[in-house]
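Section 5: illustrative case.
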């Protein structure tokens, strides 16, 4: 998954403002206790990060975006 696709999915699922806040502020256990931005900056593949987001927020991510 390209980074632009990742951010487009984040914005579709959470809205632009909340997606940015979530990425910077929310620590996910699935990402070894890092935020989304920290994981991406560390080189974690976007598909791995996206799967962690889906696992953490299954009710917020529409099926079509999974």
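Designed sequence:
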């Amino acid at each position: 998954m390209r980074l632009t696709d990742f951010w487009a999915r984040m914005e579709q699922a959470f809205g632009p403002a909340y997606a940015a806040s979530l990425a910077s502020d929310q620590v996910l256990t699935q990402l070894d206790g890092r935020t989304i931005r920290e994981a991406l900056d560390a080189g974690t593949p976007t598909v791995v990060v996206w799967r962690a987001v889906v696992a953490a927020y299954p009710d917020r991510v529409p099926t079509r975006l999974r």
